[in-house]
Design goal:
Chains A, B, C, D: This is Persulfide dioxygenase-sulfurtransferase CstB. Chains A, B, C, D: Keywords: Dioxygenase, Metal-binding, Oxidoreductase. Chains A, B, C, D: It comes from Mammaliicoccus fleurettii. Chains A, B, C, D: GO terms for molecular function: dioxygenase activity. The structure is a homotetramer of 444-residue chains. The first copy, chain A, has three domains: 254 residues, Ribonuclease Z/Hydroxyacylglutathione hydrolase-like (Metallo-beta-lactamase, Chain A), CATH 3.60.15; 78 residues, Rhodanese-like domain (Oxidized Rhodanese, domain 1); 92 residues, Rhodanese-like domain (Oxidized Rhodanese, domain 1), CATH 3.40.250. In chain A, the strands form five sheets. In chain A, strands 1-2-3-4-5-6 form a six-stranded mixed sheet, covered by helices on one side. In chain A, strands 7-8-9-10-13-14 form a six-stranded mixed sheet. Chain A has a five-stranded parallel sheet with strand order 15-19-18-16-17. By secondary structure, chain A is of the alpha/beta class. Chain A has twelve helices and 24 strands. In chain A, a hairpin with a 4-residue loop joins β2 and β3. At the A-C interface, β1, β14 and α5 of A face β1, β14 and α5 of C.
Chain lengths: 444, 444, 444, 444
C-alpha cells in the first residue's frame, strides 16, 4: 500500500493519497481544488486516481471533491449522515453517498466509514485496513476534523459562520460521544487528521503531521475529560471568531462552484480596487503606496486576508509577479478568483512608528485592534477597541487628522491596521511596533 | 531607448519590446497571445506597456494584439491599408488603424508607418527613430514578414490557405515594389524581422536574429533580381504547401478569438481522441501505444502537428506532464485549445524497421510520404505517394494486413506515418529508418 | 514539536528533521550529504539546526553526519556501541559518542538512546518523548535499519560487503534479542524507519512511510517467529547479493570523505570513459550509441549503476543536461564524484529484439543475466548464466560474432546487458523483451 | 550561421555564441566564468563549442576564457598585441595568441582580428564574414570595449586601477586612431559591443543591445570630434572612479585563477564577518540587524558591493536562500568566492529617517557620501564629505553618539552608509531619504 500526506501550508490542511499497488488504483482523501500535487505523485508512482472521499463539508477551504469527479471521472464518496438541509447538494453523477459502517474498497485496501459527528453533523471518518498487505487489523483513521493532534474539531462554526442557532451545543454533545466511541479502538491505530497547527478549525492543534490513537488517549485533553458537561464547556470556551470567509466556504462546499483552472493577472491599469501589499511588514513600513493594506504572503496569509475579502468585489495585489501568482493560487484554494490586477511595490509613504517600550501612557487616540479575548485580559486605559477584522467596515471614532497610535498584541495586526486607516483617510498614524506585549510594565 | 527581441522557437517567430526610459512607457511589436514574457521584462526594467502594434494579419500563429488591448488597456495599432474585405474585424475600442506615413510616438521614440505589401495586402513596417536618444536619423525597421534575413515573405498564403484566387501574383508584384522602395533607405538601418529559420512564411529564412539593410542589399536575393518578372517567378516558385492550420490562423487573426488563459489538463479517462506522442522518435519506436501518432516536441512540433489538427475536435497528448504542459502552451500560440487529456507513455508495440541501406528494391507496398516536390525529383519505382500531411484523411490503397514499407526523405516524417497507419488499422508496417536519402544508389 | 520525514527516492532512504518551537532548535536524524533539503525546511519554519544523530554506519549511502558538524557547526551524536574495530574513525570535534540509555535533549524534546544491534553491531535507535508538548510518555522511535515497515534490517552486509566472517550469524542473533526488547514497548509508539520499499537493506520492506509498534507486533514477521533458530533462518535466507558499491559506503561512512559540494560537468571531449545512457529503455533500444550502457534514471538507478561503478575510474553520462545533473547528484549521495563529462543522446544503432513469446527453444547462445536465486528456480536448458552485475568484469563465453539471445526476468536487466555486450565487442545481440516471465509455458 | 547575444545584467556585460551549421562548431566571444548559459544553447541548437576568443584583458569581471580551454578542451584566441608586461600570463596549452589581421575560421565563418587599442593596449576586435552563408562582405564587428552604443571604452583604468602611470593619455591617443580606422569600414556593419548601459567601462553607454557602424558614425560622439586633442579631453574628462574590485579583476584576468565551480553556503554559526543585507532599501530601513550593510540585490549590486570587498576576507550575506545563491553566483563572476555563510533577515533596529524636504539647514553633523564630482557641483554648507566607497576604511570625524544626518544624491547610497555607520559604532543616525536632489531649494 502506498500512503502520502500532502500538507497545504496556506490552509494548515492535510489531504492524503493512498494507492493499491496490486491494482494501480489511487484515492484522495479530502482533496483541495487544484489536483496538480496529487497527479504529480500518482504519475510518478504509476497510479490512476479512480476514487476520492471527503470527511465533511469543509468550512475553511474550497473542496476539490467535485473536481476529482468531473476532471478525472473518478468515483467520489461523501457523507449521507446528518440532516438533509446541511448536506451536499448538486453533486456530480459520480457521487456515492455513504453512511456509518459502509465499506469502500480501493483495490485491496478497505475503508470503513465511521460516523463521527461533532465538528459538523455529517462528519465521517475512514478506518483503513490494508488487506492487500495481508493485514486483518486496521492501520489508521482518516479523522478529518474529528481528532487532531492534541485537540478535536470545534463545534461552533455552523452557528457562527452560517447562523444555525443552537448547533454549537448539539455539536459539542456529539463530539463527546464520538470521542467515547474512538476510545474503544486499539492504541496502535494511526491518526491522520485534516488539519495541523494554525488552523482555525480548532483551538490548539499540534504541529505534528500524524499521531496514534494510544498516544492521544493519554495526551489529548478530549480523551481525558470524563464528564460530558465539562467536556462541552472546555470545547466551546474561547473558540476564536472564525474569519469572514468561512461562511462563503460552507456555501461553496455544500452547493458547488466552477471547476478550478489557473488564471493570469496583468498589471493594474486603474486604481479602483482595494489593494493588498504582500511584502513583509518591514518592507511595507520602510515604504509603501499610501492606502494599501499589508498582508504579508506567509503561512497566515489566508487567515488574515480572509477577514477582508468580499467575494463580490475585485481586489488588487502588490508584489513581485511570482509572489502574486502564489497568492492568487492560495486565494483560489478558498474559492476566491477575483484578483483583478497586480502592481509592483511603490513607495510614497514611510510608516511612522514607535516601539511599545517608548509609550508613556499619555498618548491620546490609542486604537487597540486585538481580539475581544485579548482585550478582556487587559488593555490601555485610554484605548478604543476595534478588532482588526472589523476595521474595514466599521466606523472609526477619530478625526481624520488626529494623531492615532495603533497597536495589537505583537505588531502583526497593527501593521495591517495602518494600511486600513490610511485607506479610510486618516493621515497621522503611528504604528506601535512591539504591540501590547512589549508595553512598559507600569502601563499594563 | 530599451530594445529586446523575443524569439519563440515553436513558431520561429520574433516579437519585440521597446521602451522609452524618459517616460517609462513600453510597446510590443507583433505580440503573441501569452503576454507573460513581455510583462516579465517590462516589470524588471520598470516599464508600463502602454502600446502595441502589429505588422499584418498573421497566417502562422494566433496574434496577441487584442490581448494587449483587453488585458493591459493599452493602445494598439494595426494596418488600415489593403482591401477592406481582408482587413481587421471586431477590434477592441483601444484600436488605432494606421496608414502609410502615419506617425506613432512611444514617449520620445518615433515610429513611422510604411505600407510594404507583398506578403499580404495590408502589411506595414515600422521605421524607428530614437529621438529621445538624440537621433534624427532612423535606427531600424520592424519589417514583419516583408524583409527577412536573406529572404522576403511569401505572397501565396492568401491564395493557398484562404483561397483568394489570383492573390499570389498580385502579392508578388507588390513585393517587388516594396523591395524597390526599401532599397532607397540608408544602409545602416537595422532590420528587425518577424521570423527566422524554419518559419513556413518564406522559403529560405536565415537563422540570424537581425540584419542591416546594407547587408541585405548585397546578400539578399530579393534586392538582386532586377526585373519584375524574374522576381515574381523566383518568389513564387517552389513555395512549400502551407500547414493545415494556416487557414484557421487567418480567420482567428482577422476576426478574433477568446483571450488567452492557461489551462490544466488531466489524465485520460477515455480513449476516443486522436493521441499524439511527444517523445523522441527513438523512444516511440522503441515502444509505444498502438495507434498513437508520434510528433516529437521539438522546434518543428507546431509545423508538424499543424497538418493533423482539426480545430473542432479534441486531442490527447502522450508524454510526461511537463512536456505536455509545454506542448499545450505551444498549441495555444496557434489558437488550439482542445487538448482534452494526457497519458503517460505506455508500451504495447515496438516499431519494425529496417535501415534504407538494407532495401533491395524487391519490396512491394512501398509508401512514400514526402512532399510533391521531393517526389518529383525522384522516387522508387514501385512506391505509392501520399504526402504525410494527407495521410490522416486520404484513403490508403493497401490491405490492412499487407506488409507496408513506409519512407520519407530522412526518417522524421515516416515516423509520424507509422502511427497514422496503425491508427487506421494497418498491422504490418516497416519503418525505413534512413529515408530516401540513404537508399542504396542503384535504387534511386 | 515539529516533525518532518524526508524521503530520498534514489536511495529509498528516510531521514528526519525534528524541531523544538520553544527554543528554535532543530536536529536531523540520519542525514544525507547534501543538507539543502533540511536547511530549506529549517529556514522556512524558523529553526536553527544545532544537532544531528545517526543510527548506524550506513552501508548503502554516504552519510551526511560529518557535513552537519563541519558546515553547521552542530553537535553530532553517533553510536559508541559495538566493537571498536567496526566503529567510527576520524570524527570531527563536534562529535558525541553515545551508549545505550544515554539521553539527548533538543530543547524540550528528549531522545533516549537504545542499543538495538542486529543489522550492524553498533546500531542504535532513538526513543522520542515530547516533554515540551507536555507528554511524559514516548511518542515514537527512530528505528534506523532495525525495524522497517513489515521487515527488519538484514544482518549479512558486514560479511558480504566487508568480509567480516561469521558476522551474519552474530547479527541475526542480536536482531532476535533486539526484537524481543522492542516487543516490550507500548503499542502506540510510532516507528520512524530508515528505509522504505526498494531498499537493499532488507528483503521485503513495505512502502508506507511510517508505522506503529502495535501494528508491527501483529503484522511484521519478525515479531511473530518465536524461536531464535527459526528467526535466524528466516532472516538470513535468500537475502539478495548487495550491490557492488556497498563496501565503498562502509569505508566512507566509517572513515569519512570530503565534504559535499555540487559540481558541474561539461560535454565530452574524448571518448575513453565507460558511458551510461540515462534514457528509458524504449529510447535506448529505439536508437543509441554503440557500446554505451543503459541505466534509466529512475528510482532504481542507484541500485543498478552501483554494480558497475569503480570508485577509481571516471565515467560519462548520456542524457539531457537536466537529467545528467540529477544523476550526478544521486551519485554524490553514494559518494561517487567521478562523472567526467556528459553527452547528448546520439543514435548509431537500433537494438535487435524479439518478444519472449516468440522464442522457440531452438536458439543457441542464450545468456541469462538474472540473479542466482532466480536461476535456481528454473531456466532455459541451453542458457549460460552470468548475473548482470558481473557481466562487465567476467569473461563471456561466446564468440564476438555469435548471434546471442540475452534475457532476464522481465526485460530491465537484459536492457543493461545489451550495452555491456556491445561494449565488450559482441556484434550480434538480440534482446528478449519480455524476459523469462513471458516465455512460452512449454519452455519453462 | 547562428548568432546569439548573452547579456549579464549583473555585469552589464555582453558575450556571444556564434555557430556554423555546416560543421556543427560553435565559438564564444568574451565568455564569463560560468559556461552554463552557453552550453545550454549549444546543446539545444546541436553545436559543439570548439573555440572561444576574447577582446582584451577585462577589468570589470573575471574572464571565462581559461575555463573554456580547460573544461571544453576548446581552442582559445587572445591578443598578442600591446606590451608584454601588460599581456596574458599562465595561459593553457589550447591558447592561440593572435595579432592584427590574423584570420580565425569557425567552420565557414571567418573572423579577422583587428588591433583596436585605446581602452587597453592589447584590445582587439573581430570582424565577422559569413562565408558559409554565401557572403564575401563582413557582417559585423565584435568590438569588445572599443565601440559601445553611443560611447567608446574609457582609457584610464590601467592607470587608476593598476597604477600604470601615463597610460590614460596613451590610451586616449590610441582610441582616437582606432576610431579613425573604424570610420573607414562600411556603414552596414553591425556593432556587437562588450557592454551596455550601467557598465563602469565607459561614461555613457546606451542600453541598446547592438547598433550599426553607420548609425554610430552619425550619433556617437567619438566619430564626431575631429581633432585629436579635443577627443582626448572629452574622453578623459569626468570618468568616474572605478570600483575597488577592478584592480583585482586585472590581476585575475592577466594571471588566471581557479576554474569556476558552484558552491553552497550554510547558515551562519558565528558573527565575525561583515554582513551585507540583500533586501530592498525599504525592507532594510523597516527593520534590520544592527551593523549590517544594505546592498540590495539588483542590477547595480556588483558595482556597489565592489567598493567594499576585500578579496582576502570572508563575508556573510543576509537574505532568503534563493537570493543569496544568486548573489553568490554574481560575486563568482567577479572572482569573489569568499561568502562564508548566510543569515535570514532579522530585525532589531528600524532606521530613523526624514525626507530631504523636511531638512531645515540647521542640522549639525551632516555627512554627504556622494562622489567628488557631485560634491563639487554643490553641497550643504555644514556637510562633511566622504564618498560612500571610502566610508568603510576612512575615519569618520564624528562622535559615536552624535546625531548624524547622512545623505547622498537620491537615497540609494545613503542607505548603504547607514549600515556602515552602525557597523562602525555610531548610534544616532538619520537617513535623509530623498537625497540632495530633493532638498528644499533654499538650501542648495
Amino acid at each position: 500500500m502506498f500512503f502520502k500526506q500532502f500538507y497545504e501550508d496556506n490552509l494548515s490542511q492535510a489531504s492524503y493519497l493512498i494507492g493499491c499497488q496490486r491494482t494501480g488504483e489511487a484515492m484522495i482523501i479530502d482533496p483541495i481544488r487544484d489536483l496538480t500535487k496529487y497527479l504529480k505523485v500518482a504519475d510518478k508512482e504509476g497510479f490512476t486516481i479512480t476514487k476520492a472521499a471527503e470527511t465533511h463539508i469543509h468550512a475553511d477551504f474550497a473542496s476539490g471533491i467535485r473536481d476529482v469527479a468531473n476532471k478525472l471521472n473518478a468515483s467520489i464518496y461523501v457523507s449521507d449522515e446528518g440532516k438533509d438541509e446541511f448536506n451536499y447538494k448538486n453533486m456530480p453523477k459520480q457521487t456515492h453517498f455513504v453512511k456509518h459502517q459502509d465499506i469502500i474498497y480501493l483495490g485491496k485496501i478497505k475503508l470503513e466509514v465511521l460516523h463521527t459527528p461533532g465538528h459538523t453533523p455529517e462528519s465521517i471518518s475512514f478506518l483503513l485496513t490494508d488487506e492487500g498487505g495481508g493485514s486483518s487489523i486496521p492501520m489508521g483513521l482518516f479523522s478529518g476534523d474529528f481528532i487532531f493532534v492534541g485537540d478535536v474539531g470545534r463545534p461552533d462554526l455552523l452557528e457562527k459562520a452560517v447562523n444555525v442557532e443552537g448547533s454549537t451545543k448539539i455539536g459539542a454533545k456529539q463530539m463527546y460521544q464520538s470521542i467515547q466511541f474512538a476510545a474503544t479502538l486499539p492504541d496502535y491505530i494511526q491518526i491522520w487528521p485534516g488539519h495541523g497547527a494554525g488552523s482555525p478549525c480548532g483551538k490548539a492543534l499540534g504541529s505534528l503531521p500524524t499521531t496514534t490513537l494510544g498516544y492521544e488517549k493519554i495526551n489529548n485533553w478530549a480523551f481525558n475529560v470524563k464528564y460530558e458537561t465539562s467536556f462541552i464547556e472546555t470545547l466551546t470556551l474561547n473558540q476564536p471568531a472564525p474569519p469572514h470567509h468561512f461562511s462563503q466556504m460552507k456555501k461553496i462546499n455544500q452547493f458547488g462552484m466552477q471547476m478550478y483552472q489557473p488564471y493570469n493577472v496583468y498589471p493594474s491599469s486603474s486604481n479602483t480596487q482595494t489593494a493588498f501589499d504582500l511584502r513583509s511588514k518591514e518592507a511595507f513600513h520602510g515604504g509603501h503606496m499610501h492606502g494599501t493594506i499589508n498582508i504579508p504572503f506567509n503561512k497566515t496569509f489566508i487567515n488574515q486576508i480572509g477577514w477582508y475579502l468580499d467575494y463580490d468585489k475585485d481586489i488588487e495585489l502588490i508584489g513581485d509577479k511570482s509572489t502574486v501568482q502564489q497568492a492568487i493560487h492560495a486565494l483560489q484554494l478558498i474559492g476566491f478568483e477575483n484578483v483583478k490586477s497586480y502592481r509592483l511595490p511603490q513607495t510614497n509613504i514611510v510608516t511612522s512608528s514607535i516601539h511599545s517600550s517608548e509609550m508613556t501612557g499619555e498618548e491620546h487616540n490609542v486604537l487597540d485592534v486585538r481580539n475581544d479575548d485579548e482585550w478582556r485580559k487587559g488593555h490601555l486605559k485610554q484605548a478604543i477597541h476595534i478588532p482588526h477584522g472589523k476595521l474595514l467596515n466599521e466606523d472609526i471614532p477619530f478625526d481624520k487628522n488626529d494623531l492615532i497610535y495603533v497597536h495589537c498584541q505583537s505588531g502583526v495586526r497593527s501593521s495591517i491596521a495602518v494600511g486600513i486607516l490610511e485607506y479610510k483617510g486618516f493621515t497621522n498614524i503611528v504604528n506601535v511596533r512591539g504591540g501590547y506585549q512589549h508595553l512598559p510594565a507600569f502601563l499594563k
